[in-house]
């Protein structure tokens, strides 16, 4: 006898954190989606500005198949090694008086920003067999939610991905980014041997 359930594809595994509350937890969730090829879910982890700069889900998926981001897909292992907080951060509470715009639901320019250094160990079929490093730039976004049994809303602060940038030399790819960051031109006197990531954070 055959079972109809045997032909159904297995459900994708859930992310490690149901409600991520820290930058590292949010990064770990997106890494999980990359490892298990849940690209639509990985795209949902991106901030609105990141999605706009990337150009939509189709372009997002295309970039993930190109160097250097192809090393992230289906990776064997990933570890968040470091969190860097550029500048001062502010305390954010769940109300509309902390710089949350009522229409967009996003924090103002003084919202929290954290950069996480991630070590990626590509899978055995990847073009590189050794660990590589990427920076995840995260920002804390305020999203409006309707409260059950009440005609009111509240703001949930959520860490989202603004950019992903490689922190290693990979000269066999043209500069395209899953991010709102740009590579700057070489400064005078640079020999051009090293790939340098420039970060420009507003005070």
How much helical structure, as a percent, in the residues?
10-25%
Largest sheet, in brief, is: 4 strands, antiparallel
Mean pLDDT: 74
Shape: globular
| Number of helical regions | 4
Oligomeric assembly: single chain
Low-confidence runs (pLDDT<50, min 5 residues)? 88-111, 171-177, 179-189, 191-203
Compute the CA-based radius of gyration.
19 Å
How many β-strands, per DSSP? Answer: 4
SSE order in H/E notation?
HHHHEEEE
Would you tell me the structural class of the helices and strands? alpha+beta
* Proportion of residues in β-strands: 15-25%
Ends apart, CA distance between termini: 67 Å
How would you write the strand order of the largest sheet? 1-2-3-4
Can you tell me about this structure?
By secondary structure, the chain is an alpha+beta fold. Helices cover 17% and strands 23% of the residues. The chain is built from four helices and four strands. It has helices at 23-35, 39-44, 48-54, 57-64; strands at residues 77-84, 113-121, 132-146, 153-166. A four-stranded antiparallel sheet has the order 1-2-3-4. A hairpin with a 6-residue loop joins strand 3 and strand 4 (153-166). It starts with 22 loop residues before the first helix and ends in a 37-residue tail after the last strand. The model is unreliable at 88-111, 171-177, 179-189 and 191-203 (pLDDT under 50).
């Amino acid at each position: 006898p055959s079972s109809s359930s045997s032909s159904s594809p297995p459900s994708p595994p859930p992310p490690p954190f149901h409600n991520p509350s820290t930058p590292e937890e949010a990064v770990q969730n997106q890494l999980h989606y990359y490892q298990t090829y849940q690209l639509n879910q990985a795209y949902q982890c991106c901030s609105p500005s990141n999605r706009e700069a990337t150009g939509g889900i189709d372009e997002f998926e295309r970039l993930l198949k190109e160097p250097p981001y192809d090393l992230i897909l289906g990776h064997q292992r990933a570890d968040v090694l470091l969190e860097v907080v550029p500048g001062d951060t502010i305390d954010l509470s769940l109300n509309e008086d902390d710089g949350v715009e009522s229409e967009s639901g996003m924090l103002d320019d003084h919202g929290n920003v954290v950069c996480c250094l991630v070590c990626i160990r590509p899978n055995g079929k990847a073009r590189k067999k050794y660990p590589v490093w990427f920076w995840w730039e995260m920002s804390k976004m305020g999203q409006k939610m309707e409260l059950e049994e009440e005609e009111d809303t509240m703001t949930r602060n959520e860490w989202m991905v603004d950019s992903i940038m490689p922190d290693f030399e990979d000269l066999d790819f043209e500069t395209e980014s899953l991010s709102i960051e740009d590579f700057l031109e070489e400064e005078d006197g640079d020999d051009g041997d090293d790939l340098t990531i420039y970060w420009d954070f507003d005070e």
